[in-house]
Amino acid sequence: AGGGAAGGDVASGACDPADVTLVGQVRNESNPYEASWLDGGDAFAEQVGLTQERLTYDGDSTRQQEQISQLLAGDTECLVMNILPNGDSDTPPIVEGAEAAGAYLVTQWNKPADLNVADYDSWLSHITYDGVESGRQIGDALAEAIGGSGGIVALQGILDTGAAKDRFAGLEESLAGNPDVELLDDQTANFSRAEALEVTKTLLTKHGDDIKGIWAANDDMALGALEALQQAGRDDVAVVGIDAVPDALTAIEEGTMTATVSSDGPWQGGIGLAIGYCVATGELAVEDIAADDRAWFAEQFLIQQDNVADFVSPETSEADFACDNLFSRSQGAIS
Amino acid sequence: MTTNLQTGPVPGGRTAPPALEVRGLVKHYPGVKALDGVDLVVHQNEVLGLAGENGAGKSTLLKALVGLVRPDAGEIWVRGERVRLRSVVDAANHGLGMVFQEQSLVPNLTAAENIVLGSEGPGVRRGIYHWRTMRRLAQEQLDKIGSHIDPLARTDSLSFADRQMVEIAKVLRIEERTSHPPVIILDEPTSVLESKEIETLFTQVRRLREFASVVFVSHRLDEVLDVCDRVAVLRGGRSVGEVPAAGAAPAELHRMMIGSTGSDDHYHDGLAERSEEPGRPRLVVRGLSGRTFRDVDLEVRAGEIVGIVGVHGSGREDLCRALFGAEATTAGEVQLDGERLDLSGTRAACAAGIGYVPAERKTEGMVGPMSVADNMTLTKQQARCSGPLVRPRKQATLVDTWIERLSIRTPHRGTAIQRLSGGNQQKVVLARWLVSGDVRLLLLDHPTRGLDIGARSEVYRLMRELAGSGVATVLLADSLEEAIGMSDRIVVMSDGRATTEIAAPSGGKPTPLDLVKEMV
Amino acid sequence: MSTPVLAQPASDAPVVARPTVGQRLTSFMPVIALVVLLAALTVVDPGFFTLSSLTAAVRTAAPLVVLAAGATVVVLCGGIDLSIAALCSLATVFFALWLPDLGGLTTLAIVAVAGAIGALQGVAHVLLRIPSFIVTLGGMSIFSAIALVISDAGPIPVSDRGTTHWLTLYVAGVLPMAFVVALVVVAVVSLVLRLTPVGSWVRAIGYSESAARLAGSPVDLVKVGAFTLSGACAGLAAVMLVSRNFSGSPTMADNLLLPAVAAIVVGGTAITGGHGSLWRSLAGALVVTLLRVGLPIVGVPSAYEQILYGAIIVAAVALTLDRSKVLIIK
Amino acid sequence: MTSPAEADTEVVQARRPQPRRGVSLRDAGPPIALVVVFGVFAALSPGFRTLSNVQNVLDAAAVLAVVTIGISFVLMMGSIDLSAPGIMGASAITVALLVANNRNDNDLGFVGIAVAVLLAAGLGCLSGLALVLLKVPSFMATLGVSAVGLGLATLLFAGVQPNIADPMLEGWAVERFLGLAHLTWIALGCVLLGWLVQRYSRLGRYAFAIGGAEEVLALSGVRVAPYKVAVFTLAGAFYGLAGVMVTSQLSAGLVQAGRGYDFSAITAAVVGGTLLTGGRGGILHSTVGVLLVTVLTNGLVQVGVSPYWQGGVQGLIVVAAVAAAVIPQRRRNQVTK
Ligand SMILES: Nc1ncnc2c1ncn2[C@@H]1O[C@H](COP(=O)(O)OP(=O)(O)OP(=O)(O)O)[C@@H](O)[C@H]1O
Ligand SMILES: Nc1ncnc2c1ncn2[C@@H]1O[C@H](COP(=O)(O)OP(=O)(O)OP(=O)(O)O)[C@@H](O)[C@H]1O
Ligand SMILES: O[C@@H]1[C@@H](O)[C@H](O)OC[C@H]1O
Ligand SMILES: [Mg+2]
Ligand SMILES: [Mg+2]
Q1: What residues of chain D lie within 8 A of the CB of A187, using their CB?
Q2: Collapsing DSSP states into helix, strand and coil, what is residue C324?
Q3: Which atom of ligand 3 is nearest to the CA of A31?
Q4: Which of A59, B29, B250, D145 is the right S-S partner for A27, CB 3.0 to 4.6 Å?
Q5: Which residue stretches belong to region Disordered (chain D) (predicted)?
Q6: Domain covering B266-353+439-519 assigned CATH 3.30.70.260 in the classification
């Protein structure tokens, strides 16, 4: 039918490297993390002598679907897509569309737990960071920073995303292990710096000096919280976040922020294309990808003042994207 | 009696050039030739009346004189000099200003701002308001016409008459723009005024004549003859002649307007001729109270026309609206043909067989961009449907019948109603209640506002015909004469209460003075 | 009849006012805008004008067409419905939650319930006399909150795909069923408006609500009806989205609000009410969809894409709005 | 005639009482709603009624207030404006790149701020021009301009977050005077300025008049088009300043600096009693609306309403507040759009 002309005969490709089309799709180019992702994709494309088609959908789920169906209605024979689905629910239709059209697909971050990558031929891999783990790690770092006891508040991400939920679950684990740390309040600031600023100000007046620490589900919100603290004249509150965006690293260097967890945008932008490219050109066969590498957690690090220097300029080397080295950052299959 | 246009006597005996002269003005609209070579002369310090049927082209001519309508051909001369008027400002600079047929003030501004709007002069310096100066400028204008309103009152809080004064005060601002005496154009200024307000207005018009020329339009020909020095008549977009006001009779003017010898007495003819006696009580109102009326009792019999008279604020308009379900009531009961009437909304009122013609035609009576046909069948949809479906042919036949019966002048039934002249619009609005023939009670709020004599007598005839067929009518008349002439009985309202009832059978009519005594 | 004799002028004028060529042209403007846009995209990227690509585009457009169609009637009445997208999201959640119990009846139930919710807003609007902008803005946040809570802030997968499978089929192999359904909605509502008195009530209310009321038109009823239809369409669009995404999610359609309103306005319907039609919204929705998917696919970079999008929708409205029908443009 | 000045005082004094001049009862709804909502939260939450929280509410209202002042002029004309997100984004990035920052060597200080506000005014002007020249309804014109603004912002952003290092701009958010942040004083200044413009400038009064009866202005020989363009330009300038304020608060220029401000500003204005049909309300009305919305947002957090429900509860209260405010004005044949 109109949706898919090519049909699902993908197992491994025989595309001329020059015929491969590389597509990277993220929410927008107006936040540093996702912009760096697309830049990483460009770097990889250049490495193999191609260019990446950069797509953004402005955090709009329907628009993401629309773009992908339009993309899949074109020539899909040697199409490689590295996609950041807007939310868990956006992944299945993308996967089904790619499967029907026979386009090579790698997804990152969001996937419903019950959707199994191995059930598909074109969906090569799903990569994410372990949100529960990161939420717990920064939770523990926060607990330690406030001396193991005291009140904290949590800034949640967009409530209906897996990342937000997993990370908060991680915080709850951490709280269980730190019984003297009390969660005074949790609010959402939708992963946004501006909203975090307002919410934090209000929480600061609500709980006053009881607040010893702020747990934020990403660095953008942590940075907003830092501004609020500065404006309130408070320098005794520890702040943690996730993503390792440059500003957060600077803040950690300067000692105003306690910890973050690395998510490596440039690498994410390159690796998805690399996996697709290797399969499309026949250098890697889908059957040869280990079951554990179909859906995996990528390596992440807790970054604090002592090790921040190592992360200030994240580097992705060409070797990271070599067809025989694609899964080197795997921390194991998604449980 | 008809005098030559070019050589009319110049008041004062001097042979100065006329204040304003129009030669061969032509204006076409799609399907209509609104002006077809009009000639007109306005002398200095005279009040010139302009008469003509609805759609004769009066408003179009006047709009051309203030730069709002660009004529297709013809010339306009001001004080002996040929001018091209491109905008209101242009016209004002030549000393021409107009008070429009529909009131045109900005309701949410102060009276002072409205008066100086567009020509604030020293009232606004470098874009900054100087309220004291504004107030002074406005006060000067108000003083000229002897009005006592507060210049800083919001316009929408003023009475109708006061707003009309503001309009006149505003138009007089054009004096500041020219060193010459201005020409002030008044397009049907009296159609929305009560008789007392009209008197005030006429006093002002006579004062204006001292230093300005005035062009005055009204469908009340006695009024025209009363206040004007000379009357020019338009017919079908052409000048058909003029008469000096002194000694002329309305009938004579009317003959010129319609181009034939019509009946003489449009106000009164046929008034007495209704044969049937009014029937049983149809509308019975007991102790009805609302926002602006209290404890009103009223009875209207089938076939009876009851006029309600009262000044602005007497509550009669709201009473009518309440009977139609368009205004909330707080107490009382209403019965129609012995059954309790549901006052909860207009829909229920329509279903019960009540019809209502509001006074504000433009905003409440008609849906401007919709066609004549759709406006006419808006209420009685079933008249153009079979089952739930609209039958265009059925509608066309029905509408064309009524266009013909009421002599509605429109290029086509599909023409947007806003393109019709005011009088013809009014006929369409009236026709809305007649198309299905199932109306039992008609509430008419100024049904003849803005209608020419012919159309008016047509409406009168219709009302009588309807009464003859048993329809009960409540009439808020345009003038006391109309109320007296048309009604079988007159109820006087003042301060929200129905105070007096006066019988007005044919042959035993009260005089206007009798009513005025009761009204105040 | 003793009416005054008519003077000559009107008689030599043409009796029937036929629409001029210009007037006819303005009513086709939305389609012209669509064709021009398609041509432009094809010039930039010849690969864009293929059957499969067009098929994908109309399939994509279907939920937007349905959303815009419903809201068009509200706009024709002079109001606005800002809740459609949030209600649509909520309806996707309902769908996913109810499907296991209701099975094949779910679609009907969703359309009915969404219609009822729309009606509720209509009733609040007409009874409390709150501007529709505010009622539906409030509705928008309330529906979002409910959706978030009942879904436990996450997508709910739909495992039984049989119920919505028919929407993913193709008529004659090329015409997506979802789009056919959208066309049917547009056609049916248009016919009801044209063939019954409802059409003139709607226009009268939109042009002049008080005149309509004083002519005894069922103003409140028609408005509530318009909001009901708008809600029901949001429900139907939700079913389409679920059939496409295999899940319901509390924010799934949220971003369709502005595109839907844009579709209505780009079609040339007057945002002030009275003038316009569902066919115009259909063309408008296709224009908006082409812009949303077409610009990035033909390779316009993200930042320029937004700039172009802004410029083109403004230009499209400049083209499609019939100014002889809308005198004062606010 | 006597000296006009004398004459008019006399006449005016003599008949002041009846016609409506100033505020009337129908304007009292929103302030009453504000007091009620404030009272309820104060009763429910001890944290809410502290002085520092009141300061916090005022600080939090600053940006919304500036945006709402801008939009109020547009709403007064009966038009609508959805361009705030785009214009604020463009101005936020622009100012961040022009004052001392981590992306380039610019250090224009105040001039940088002025340029950002001018750029914003230019974008606003574009909306106005589309409205009067192309006759595109403001709803669409401003939606288009918002997209253009976001596009420009994204172009300038170029993938790397510009952080500001300008002490003055950073100080605006941090330093306080009489307990309020400088930004809050700036917002108060804007309220005063807006009110003066509305009351004493031709632009303000004409905007009000355009909402009241646009066609009458034309009949009076006023060319309304330039005033419309000027109002959109003025609104754009206010959005631009708001974008600068957000940048000061966050110490960084964000493309999303204006996200959501379009609808929240319209909500605030309407809650304050400005009608979307134009011709009513104004700056002071809108300011009350801003306070009401901000108190709500703050209060719901203070009393501990679940984040899941906050939006819904806020929507409900806004509808209820507007409903309560319109009750005294309800008429049978009233038109509500
Ligand atoms: N804007 C317009 N478009 C089309 N036709 C118009 C327009 N304005 C006026 N006409 C037509 O021109 C003719 C003259 O109208 P005009 O308003 O000048 O009449 P009038 O003498 O003022 O009538 P009335 O006494 O009812 O006010 C009418 O047939 C009217 O339908
Ligand atoms: N003496 C004065 N000095 C300054 N301004 C004045 C003065 N008199 C009147 N005004 C202006 O006239 C206005 C009165 O009309 P306005 O429409 O603004 O009243 P309002 O009560 O604000 O109406 P709304 O209820 O529509 O808000 C005042 O708000 C003010 O702008
Ligand atoms: O900050 C990121 C956020 O924008 C995205 O939604 O999820 C992953 C986060 O790290
Ligand atoms: Mg006229
Ligand atoms: Mg005011």
Answers
A1: 301, 307
A2: coil
A3: 4
A4: A59
A5: 1-24
A6: no
Instruction: Summarize pLDDT for A85-110 with one digit per residue, the tens.
Output: 998 889 999 999 999 999 999 999 99
Say if residue B264's pLDDT is above 60: no
Tokens of A113: 């737990």
Q: Is A242 in the pocket of ligand 3 (CB under 6 A)?
A: yes
Give chain C's end-to-end CA distance (angstroms, integer).
46
**CATH topology classification for B1-95+181-263:** Rossmann fold (3.40.50)
Task: Work out the mean pLDDT of chain A and round it to a whole number.
Answer: 91
User: How far apart (Å, rounded) are the C-alpha atoms in residues D294 and D305?
Assistant: 15
Best probe of the D interface among B106, B125, B364, by most D CBs < 10 A, is B106
| Predicted local confidence at residue D323, as pLDDT | 85
Q: Where are the domains of chain D?
A: 47-330
Residues with Cβ < 8 Å from C250, sequence gap 6 or more?
A160, C89, C90, C93, C144, C147, C148, C151, C153, C154
- Domain positions in chain B are 1-95+181-263, 104-177, 266-353+439-519, 364-436
What's chain A's length in residues?
335
Please enumerate in sequence order all residues whose Cβ is within 8 A of that of C40, keeping only pairs 6 or more positions apart, or say none: none
Q: What is the pLDDT of residues A174-199, one digit of tens each?
A: 999 999 999 999 999 989 998 999 89
Provide the pLDDT for residue D25: 60
Chains D and A touch (3+ CB pairs under 8 A): yes
For residue B379, give every residue at least 6 positions away whose Cβ sits within 8 Å of its Cβ, in sequence order, or none: B350, B355, B432, B433, C215, C216, C217
pLDDT in tens, D232-246: 999 999 999 999 999
Tell which of C55, C252, C256 to mutate to test the A interface (max A CBs under 10 Å).
C252
Count of alpha carbons within 13 angstroms of residue A184, beta-carbon side: 23
Question: How confident is the model over D87-99, as pLDDT tens digits?
Answer: 999 999 999 999 9
The domain ranges of chain C are 61-254
Please give the mean pLDDT across all residues of chain B: 86
State which of B22, B27, B32, B101 you would mutate to test the pocket of ligand 1, scoring each by most atoms of that ligand within 8 A of its C-beta: B32
Q: Do D140 and C265 touch (CB under 8 A)?
A: yes
The answer to whether residue D333 scores a pLDDT higher than 70 is: no
Residue C235: both structure tokens together: 């429900």
Measure the CA–CA gap between D60 and D75, rounded to whole angstroms: 23
All residue ranges of chain A with pLDDT < 70 are: 1-12, 314
CA D335 to ligand 5 centroid distance, Å: 21
- Structural tokens at position B82: 């040929």
pTM: 0.90
Residue B323 neighbours by CB under 8 Å, 6+ apart:
B283, B285, B334, B341, B343, B349, B354, B441, B443, B474
Q: Does ipTM exceed 0.95? A: no
- The residues near A36 (Cβ < 8 Å, ≥ 6 apart) are A265, A266, A269, D159
What's the B52 CA to ligand 4 centre distance in angstroms?
A: 9
* Residue numbers in D near B124 (CB within 8 A): 202
CA distance B119 to D156: 46
- What are the pLDDT digits (tens) for B112-150? 999 999 888 898 999 999 999 999 999 999 988 788 899
What's the average model confidence in pLDDT over B475-503?
Answer: 90
The identity of residue D94, as a single letter, is T
Task: Write out the two tokens for A332.
Answer: 């194991």
CA distances from D33 to C126, D36, D38 (A): 22, 5, 8
The pLDDT of residue B514: 81
For residue B123, the number of C-alpha atoms closer than 13 Å in the C-beta half-sphere is 22
Q: Write down the pLDDT at residue A296.
A: 96
> What pLDDT was estimated at residue C216?
92
For the domain made up of D47-330, give the CATH fold.
ABC transporter involved in vitamin B12 uptake, BtuC (1.10.3470)
